[in-house]
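Researcher: Good morning. I'm working through a list of sequences from a screen, and I'd like to move beyond sequence-only analysis. For each chain I'm collecting a predicted structure so we can compare shapes side by side. This is the next one on the list. No need for commentary yet; just the structure.
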Amino acid sequence: MVGTMASRGKVLILVENLPVPFDRRVWLEATTLRDAGYTVTVTCPTGGRHTAGYECLEGVHVYRYELSPTGTGFLDYVREFGTALFKTFWLSLRVLQRHGFDVIHACNPPDLFFLIGWLYKPLGKRFVFDQHDLTPETYRVQRQGRGGLIYRVLLFLERLTYATSDMVIATNESIRGFACERGRAPRERIFVVRTGPDFDRLRVVPPDSSLKRGATYLVCYVGVMGIQDGVDYALRAADWIVHRQGRRDVHFAFIGSGDVLHNLKRLADELNLNGHVTFTGRIPDDELVTYLSTADVCISPDPQNGLNEYHTMNKTLEYMAMGQPQVAFDLTEMRVSAGDAAAYACPNDVQDFGRQILLLLDDPARREAMGRLGRKRIEDELGWAHTHRNLLEAYHWLSDQMRGA
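Model: Good morning. C-alpha coordinates for this chain:
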Protein backbone atom coordinates (compact mmCIF):
# COMPACT_ATOMS: atom_id res chain seq x y z
CA MET A 1 0.00 0.00 0.00
CA VAL A 2 2.93 2.33 0.65
CA GLY A 3 3.71 2.31 -3.05
CA THR A 4 0.45 4.17 -3.86
CA MET A 5 1.16 7.15 -1.59
CA ALA A 6 1.16 9.88 -4.21
CA SER A 7 -2.38 9.04 -5.32
CA ARG A 8 -3.92 9.97 -1.98
CA GLY A 9 -2.20 13.23 -1.04
CA LYS A 10 0.38 14.53 1.40
CA VAL A 11 -0.11 15.22 5.10
CA LEU A 12 2.07 17.23 7.48
CA ILE A 13 1.44 16.40 11.15
CA LEU A 14 2.52 18.99 13.75
CA VAL A 15 3.27 17.89 17.33
CA GLU A 16 4.77 19.83 20.22
CA ASN A 17 4.41 17.98 23.51
CA LEU A 18 6.11 14.63 22.72
CA PRO A 19 8.62 13.23 20.23
CA VAL A 20 7.46 10.82 17.56
CA PRO A 21 7.23 7.81 17.54
CA PHE A 22 7.10 8.05 21.37
CA ASP A 23 3.74 9.80 21.01
CA ARG A 24 1.82 6.62 20.33
CA ARG A 25 -1.43 8.21 19.12
CA VAL A 26 0.37 10.37 16.58
CA TRP A 27 2.49 7.46 15.41
CA LEU A 28 -0.58 5.28 14.91
CA GLU A 29 -2.29 8.07 12.97
CA ALA A 30 0.81 8.62 10.83
CA THR A 31 1.26 4.95 9.97
CA THR A 32 -2.46 4.48 9.32
CA LEU A 33 -2.45 7.35 6.82
CA ARG A 34 0.76 5.99 5.28
CA ASP A 35 -0.85 2.58 4.82
CA ALA A 36 -3.87 4.25 3.22
CA GLY A 37 -1.64 5.74 0.55
CA TYR A 38 -0.72 9.18 1.91
CA THR A 39 2.76 10.66 2.06
CA VAL A 40 3.15 11.55 5.74
CA THR A 41 5.62 13.92 7.38
CA VAL A 42 5.78 14.75 11.08
CA THR A 43 7.44 17.66 12.90
CA CYS A 44 8.04 17.28 16.64
CA PRO A 45 10.59 18.00 19.38
CA THR A 46 13.52 15.74 20.15
CA GLY A 47 13.36 13.68 23.34
CA GLY A 48 14.72 10.53 24.94
CA ARG A 49 16.27 8.25 22.34
CA HIS A 50 14.75 10.28 19.51
CA THR A 51 17.45 12.87 18.89
CA ALA A 52 17.95 12.81 15.11
CA GLY A 53 17.01 16.02 13.31
CA TYR A 54 15.59 13.94 10.46
CA GLU A 55 14.91 10.30 9.82
CA CYS A 56 12.55 8.27 7.71
CA LEU A 57 10.86 5.70 9.96
CA GLU A 58 8.91 2.96 8.20
CA GLY A 59 8.10 5.29 5.35
CA VAL A 60 7.15 8.28 7.55
CA HIS A 61 9.36 11.37 7.34
CA VAL A 62 10.12 12.75 10.82
CA TYR A 63 11.70 16.18 11.34
CA ARG A 64 12.64 17.15 14.89
CA TYR A 65 13.74 20.32 16.63
CA GLU A 66 15.38 20.87 20.00
CA LEU A 67 13.11 22.28 22.69
CA SER A 68 14.79 23.03 26.00
CA PRO A 69 12.95 22.11 29.21
CA THR A 70 11.13 25.00 30.84
CA GLY A 71 9.41 25.66 34.13
CA THR A 72 5.70 25.92 34.85
CA GLY A 73 5.35 29.71 35.00
CA PHE A 74 3.51 31.80 32.45
CA LEU A 75 6.69 33.21 30.91
CA ASP A 76 8.10 29.68 30.72
CA TYR A 77 5.11 28.58 28.65
CA VAL A 78 5.37 31.64 26.41
CA ARG A 79 9.02 30.84 25.78
CA GLU A 80 8.37 27.14 25.17
CA PHE A 81 5.37 27.54 22.87
CA GLY A 82 6.85 30.53 21.05
CA THR A 83 10.03 28.58 20.33
CA ALA A 84 8.06 25.53 19.22
CA LEU A 85 5.86 27.64 16.93
CA PHE A 86 8.84 29.30 15.24
CA LYS A 87 10.80 26.08 14.79
CA THR A 88 7.75 24.20 13.55
CA PHE A 89 7.04 26.86 10.92
CA TRP A 90 10.69 26.80 9.83
CA LEU A 91 10.56 23.03 9.42
CA SER A 92 7.27 23.29 7.53
CA LEU A 93 9.05 25.39 4.92
CA ARG A 94 11.66 22.66 4.52
CA VAL A 95 8.95 20.01 4.27
CA LEU A 96 7.08 22.08 1.67
CA GLN A 97 10.23 22.25 -0.44
CA ARG A 98 11.35 18.62 -0.02
CA HIS A 99 8.12 16.62 0.15
CA GLY A 100 5.20 19.00 -0.15
CA PHE A 101 1.89 18.73 1.71
CA ASP A 102 -1.79 19.28 1.04
CA VAL A 103 -3.04 19.04 4.62
CA ILE A 104 -1.66 20.38 7.91
CA HIS A 105 -2.77 18.07 10.71
CA ALA A 106 -2.10 19.95 13.97
CA CYS A 107 -2.14 18.18 17.34
CA ASN A 108 -2.56 20.25 20.49
CA PRO A 109 -1.33 21.49 22.92
CA PRO A 110 -0.60 24.31 22.25
CA ASP A 111 -3.53 25.90 20.43
CA LEU A 112 -1.19 28.03 18.32
CA PHE A 113 -0.63 25.94 15.21
CA PHE A 114 -3.66 27.59 13.60
CA LEU A 115 -1.26 30.46 12.81
CA ILE A 116 0.73 28.13 10.57
CA GLY A 117 -2.46 26.81 9.02
CA TRP A 118 -3.68 30.36 8.42
CA LEU A 119 -0.41 31.30 6.66
CA TYR A 120 -0.73 28.36 4.28
CA LYS A 121 -4.44 28.85 3.52
CA PRO A 122 -3.75 31.13 0.51
CA LEU A 123 -1.74 28.24 -1.00
CA GLY A 124 -4.80 26.00 -0.86
CA LYS A 125 -3.64 23.93 2.12
CA ARG A 126 -6.28 22.45 4.42
CA PHE A 127 -6.02 22.63 8.21
CA VAL A 128 -7.06 19.79 10.53
CA PHE A 129 -7.30 20.32 14.29
CA ASP A 130 -6.60 17.07 16.17
CA GLN A 131 -7.71 18.07 19.65
CA HIS A 132 -5.96 15.89 22.21
CA ASP A 133 -6.48 18.19 25.21
CA LEU A 134 -8.66 21.00 26.48
CA THR A 135 -5.86 23.55 26.81
CA PRO A 136 -7.82 26.21 28.76
CA GLU A 137 -8.94 23.63 31.34
CA THR A 138 -5.42 22.23 31.56
CA TYR A 139 -4.09 25.71 32.38
CA ARG A 140 -6.79 26.27 34.99
CA VAL A 141 -6.05 22.96 36.70
CA GLN A 142 -2.32 23.69 36.72
CA ARG A 143 -3.14 27.00 38.41
CA GLN A 144 -5.22 25.32 41.13
CA GLY A 145 -8.53 26.39 39.61
CA ARG A 146 -7.63 29.99 38.85
CA GLY A 147 -8.75 31.39 35.51
CA GLY A 148 -8.27 35.05 34.84
CA LEU A 149 -6.92 36.79 31.76
CA ILE A 150 -4.67 33.93 30.61
CA TYR A 151 -7.55 31.49 30.73
CA ARG A 152 -9.65 33.83 28.58
CA VAL A 153 -6.76 34.23 26.13
CA LEU A 154 -6.50 30.44 25.84
CA LEU A 155 -10.23 30.21 25.16
CA PHE A 156 -9.78 32.80 22.41
CA LEU A 157 -6.88 30.87 20.86
CA GLU A 158 -8.93 27.67 20.97
CA ARG A 159 -11.80 29.48 19.25
CA LEU A 160 -9.45 30.74 16.50
CA THR A 161 -8.13 27.20 16.05
CA TYR A 162 -11.66 25.88 15.53
CA ALA A 163 -12.44 28.75 13.15
CA THR A 164 -9.33 28.06 11.04
CA SER A 165 -10.00 24.32 10.85
CA ASP A 166 -11.43 22.62 7.82
CA MET A 167 -11.95 19.52 9.97
CA VAL A 168 -11.78 18.72 13.70
CA ILE A 169 -10.74 15.36 15.14
CA ALA A 170 -11.88 14.73 18.73
CA THR A 171 -10.65 11.93 20.97
CA ASN A 172 -14.10 11.20 22.42
CA GLU A 173 -17.68 12.41 22.54
CA SER A 174 -16.99 14.80 25.42
CA ILE A 175 -14.33 16.63 23.41
CA ARG A 176 -16.66 16.58 20.42
CA GLY A 177 -19.24 18.35 22.58
CA PHE A 178 -16.77 21.13 23.38
CA ALA A 179 -15.98 21.51 19.68
CA CYS A 180 -19.67 21.84 18.82
CA GLU A 181 -20.81 24.03 21.70
CA ARG A 182 -17.87 26.13 22.80
CA GLY A 183 -16.00 26.01 19.50
CA ARG A 184 -19.11 26.42 17.31
CA ALA A 185 -17.56 24.02 14.81
CA PRO A 186 -20.12 22.58 12.36
CA ARG A 187 -21.08 19.11 13.51
CA GLU A 188 -20.46 17.58 10.09
CA ARG A 189 -16.81 18.67 10.28
CA ILE A 190 -16.13 16.91 13.60
CA PHE A 191 -15.01 13.28 13.71
CA VAL A 192 -14.35 11.20 16.82
CA VAL A 193 -11.16 9.14 16.57
CA ARG A 194 -10.57 7.41 19.88
CA THR A 195 -7.03 6.47 20.86
CA GLY A 196 -6.88 2.69 20.66
CA PRO A 197 -4.09 0.40 21.89
CA ASP A 198 -1.97 -1.42 19.33
CA PHE A 199 -1.41 -5.11 20.01
CA ASP A 200 1.80 -5.02 17.98
CA ARG A 201 3.26 -3.00 20.85
CA LEU A 202 1.32 -4.30 23.86
CA ARG A 203 1.79 -8.01 24.24
CA VAL A 204 1.71 -10.18 27.34
CA VAL A 205 5.12 -11.64 28.24
CA PRO A 206 6.31 -13.87 31.10
CA PRO A 207 6.20 -12.00 34.44
CA ASP A 208 9.39 -11.01 36.25
CA SER A 209 8.93 -11.48 39.99
CA SER A 210 12.05 -9.43 40.76
CA LEU A 211 10.06 -6.30 39.84
CA LYS A 212 7.99 -6.85 43.00
CA ARG A 213 11.09 -6.11 45.10
CA GLY A 214 10.35 -8.99 47.48
CA ALA A 215 6.64 -8.15 47.91
CA THR A 216 3.72 -10.42 47.10
CA TYR A 217 1.86 -7.91 44.94
CA LEU A 218 2.81 -5.26 42.39
CA VAL A 219 0.66 -2.20 41.68
CA CYS A 220 1.60 -0.23 38.53
CA TYR A 221 1.03 3.27 37.24
CA VAL A 222 2.00 4.11 33.65
CA GLY A 223 1.80 7.60 32.20
CA VAL A 224 2.64 11.26 32.36
CA MET A 225 3.37 12.81 35.75
CA GLY A 226 1.94 16.32 35.68
CA ILE A 227 -0.11 18.32 38.14
CA GLN A 228 -3.39 17.09 36.67
CA ASP A 229 -2.49 13.39 36.58
CA GLY A 230 -3.08 12.60 40.25
CA VAL A 231 0.05 10.59 40.98
CA ASP A 232 0.18 12.36 44.36
CA TYR A 233 -3.23 10.80 45.12
CA ALA A 234 -1.76 7.39 44.31
CA LEU A 235 1.20 7.99 46.63
CA ARG A 236 -1.09 9.00 49.47
CA ALA A 237 -3.18 5.87 48.81
CA ALA A 238 0.05 3.85 48.98
CA ASP A 239 0.81 5.52 52.31
CA TRP A 240 -2.64 4.51 53.60
CA ILE A 241 -2.13 0.92 52.40
CA VAL A 242 1.40 0.48 53.74
CA HIS A 243 1.30 2.46 56.98
CA ARG A 244 -2.37 2.61 57.99
CA GLN A 245 -3.30 -0.91 56.93
CA GLY A 246 0.10 -2.47 57.57
CA ARG A 247 0.27 -4.06 54.12
CA ARG A 248 4.00 -4.45 53.61
CA ASP A 249 3.27 -7.10 50.97
CA VAL A 250 2.51 -4.50 48.27
CA HIS A 251 5.06 -2.72 46.06
CA PHE A 252 4.19 0.23 43.81
CA ALA A 253 5.88 1.01 40.49
CA PHE A 254 5.43 4.41 38.85
CA ILE A 255 6.46 4.33 35.20
CA GLY A 256 6.86 7.56 33.25
CA SER A 257 8.04 11.11 33.72
CA GLY A 258 6.74 14.66 33.78
CA ASP A 259 6.99 18.14 35.25
CA VAL A 260 6.30 17.08 38.84
CA LEU A 261 8.37 13.87 38.99
CA HIS A 262 10.89 15.50 41.34
CA ASN A 263 8.10 16.65 43.65
CA LEU A 264 6.57 13.17 43.65
CA LYS A 265 9.86 11.59 44.65
CA ARG A 266 10.13 14.08 47.48
CA LEU A 267 6.56 13.30 48.59
CA ALA A 268 7.34 9.57 48.60
CA ASP A 269 10.32 10.31 50.84
CA GLU A 270 8.20 12.46 53.17
CA LEU A 271 5.63 9.65 53.42
CA ASN A 272 8.39 7.16 54.28
CA LEU A 273 7.59 5.02 51.25
CA ASN A 274 11.19 4.26 50.34
CA GLY A 275 11.42 0.53 49.76
CA HIS A 276 7.73 0.36 48.86
CA VAL A 277 7.82 2.55 45.75
CA THR A 278 9.90 2.49 42.55
CA PHE A 279 10.07 5.37 40.07
CA THR A 280 11.40 4.00 36.78
CA GLY A 281 11.24 7.11 34.58
CA ARG A 282 10.48 6.49 30.92
CA ILE A 283 11.40 2.97 29.88
CA PRO A 284 11.50 1.07 26.55
CA ASP A 285 8.44 -0.87 25.46
CA ASP A 286 9.98 -4.25 26.23
CA GLU A 287 10.49 -3.22 29.87
CA LEU A 288 7.03 -1.64 30.00
CA VAL A 289 5.21 -4.80 28.90
CA THR A 290 7.22 -6.82 31.43
CA TYR A 291 6.04 -4.54 34.23
CA LEU A 292 2.44 -4.72 33.02
CA SER A 293 2.63 -8.50 32.63
CA THR A 294 3.91 -8.77 36.22
CA ALA A 295 1.46 -6.32 37.84
CA ASP A 296 -1.44 -7.58 39.90
CA VAL A 297 -3.39 -4.31 39.74
CA CYS A 298 -2.91 -1.13 37.69
CA ILE A 299 -4.08 2.33 38.69
CA SER A 300 -5.51 5.43 37.01
CA PRO A 301 -5.52 8.04 39.81
CA ASP A 302 -6.62 10.98 37.63
CA PRO A 303 -8.73 13.14 39.96
CA GLN A 304 -11.95 14.98 39.27
CA ASN A 305 -10.79 18.51 38.47
CA GLY A 306 -12.82 19.97 35.62
CA LEU A 307 -10.47 18.45 33.03
CA ASN A 308 -9.96 14.73 33.53
CA GLU A 309 -13.71 14.03 33.40
CA TYR A 310 -13.62 14.81 29.67
CA HIS A 311 -10.45 13.00 28.65
CA THR A 312 -9.80 9.44 27.54
CA MET A 313 -6.69 8.19 29.35
CA ASN A 314 -4.28 6.17 27.25
CA LYS A 315 -3.08 4.22 30.27
CA THR A 316 -6.63 3.01 30.96
CA LEU A 317 -6.85 1.41 27.52
CA GLU A 318 -3.31 0.03 27.69
CA TYR A 319 -4.03 -1.69 31.00
CA MET A 320 -7.11 -3.26 29.39
CA ALA A 321 -5.10 -4.37 26.35
CA MET A 322 -2.68 -6.12 28.70
CA GLY A 323 -5.54 -7.89 30.47
CA GLN A 324 -5.00 -6.03 33.73
CA PRO A 325 -7.69 -4.97 36.21
CA GLN A 326 -7.43 -1.40 37.40
CA VAL A 327 -8.61 1.05 40.03
CA ALA A 328 -9.73 4.53 39.02
CA PHE A 329 -11.71 7.45 40.32
CA ASP A 330 -15.29 7.42 39.06
CA LEU A 331 -15.13 9.87 36.11
CA THR A 332 -17.39 10.10 33.06
CA GLU A 333 -14.97 9.18 30.28
CA MET A 334 -13.23 6.64 32.51
CA ARG A 335 -16.48 4.66 32.73
CA VAL A 336 -17.03 5.02 28.98
CA SER A 337 -13.61 3.45 28.35
CA ALA A 338 -13.24 0.84 31.06
CA GLY A 339 -16.81 -0.10 31.91
CA ASP A 340 -16.77 -3.08 34.26
CA ALA A 341 -13.04 -3.68 33.70
CA ALA A 342 -12.22 -1.21 36.49
CA ALA A 343 -13.04 -0.80 40.17
CA TYR A 344 -14.14 2.76 40.92
CA ALA A 345 -13.35 4.88 43.95
CA CYS A 346 -15.25 7.99 45.00
CA PRO A 347 -13.67 10.92 43.15
CA ASN A 348 -10.59 12.30 44.92
CA ASP A 349 -11.09 10.06 47.98
CA VAL A 350 -7.59 8.73 48.73
CA GLN A 351 -8.73 6.25 51.35
CA ASP A 352 -11.40 4.76 49.09
CA PHE A 353 -8.85 4.53 46.28
CA GLY A 354 -6.56 2.54 48.57
CA ARG A 355 -9.48 0.41 49.75
CA GLN A 356 -10.41 -0.52 46.17
CA ILE A 357 -6.80 -1.54 45.48
CA LEU A 358 -6.78 -3.87 48.48
CA LEU A 359 -10.18 -5.34 47.61
CA LEU A 360 -8.81 -6.29 44.18
CA LEU A 361 -5.50 -7.59 45.47
CA ASP A 362 -7.35 -9.87 47.90
CA ASP A 363 -9.72 -11.23 45.24
CA PRO A 364 -7.73 -13.00 42.49
CA ALA A 365 -10.86 -14.37 40.79
CA ARG A 366 -12.28 -10.87 40.41
CA ARG A 367 -8.96 -9.60 39.09
CA GLU A 368 -8.84 -12.32 36.47
CA ALA A 369 -12.45 -11.73 35.36
CA MET A 370 -11.94 -7.96 35.06
CA GLY A 371 -8.73 -8.48 33.11
CA ARG A 372 -10.44 -10.79 30.62
CA LEU A 373 -13.33 -8.37 30.23
CA GLY A 374 -11.01 -5.43 29.55
CA ARG A 375 -8.94 -7.35 27.03
CA LYS A 376 -12.05 -8.49 25.15
CA ARG A 377 -13.37 -4.92 25.08
CA ILE A 378 -10.16 -3.78 23.38
CA GLU A 379 -10.18 -6.71 20.95
CA ASP A 380 -13.84 -6.27 19.99
CA GLU A 381 -14.33 -2.50 20.07
CA LEU A 382 -11.68 -0.11 21.38
CA GLY A 383 -8.41 -1.30 19.83
CA TRP A 384 -6.74 0.73 17.08
CA ALA A 385 -7.70 -2.05 14.64
CA HIS A 386 -11.26 -0.71 15.03
CA THR A 387 -10.88 3.01 15.85
CA HIS A 388 -8.48 3.78 12.97
CA ARG A 389 -11.42 3.41 10.57
CA ASN A 390 -12.84 6.69 11.86
CA LEU A 391 -9.59 8.44 10.95
CA LEU A 392 -9.79 7.12 7.41
CA GLU A 393 -13.45 8.09 7.20
CA ALA A 394 -12.53 11.63 8.30
CA TYR A 395 -9.83 11.91 5.65
CA HIS A 396 -12.14 10.50 3.01
CA TRP A 397 -14.61 13.29 3.88
CA LEU A 398 -11.83 15.88 3.72
CA SER A 399 -10.67 14.55 0.34
CA ASP A 400 -14.20 14.95 -0.99
CA GLN A 401 -14.25 18.55 0.24
CA MET A 402 -10.91 19.24 -1.43
CA ARG A 403 -12.23 17.88 -4.72
CA GLY A 404 -15.31 20.04 -4.35
CA ALA A 405 -17.70 17.13 -3.81
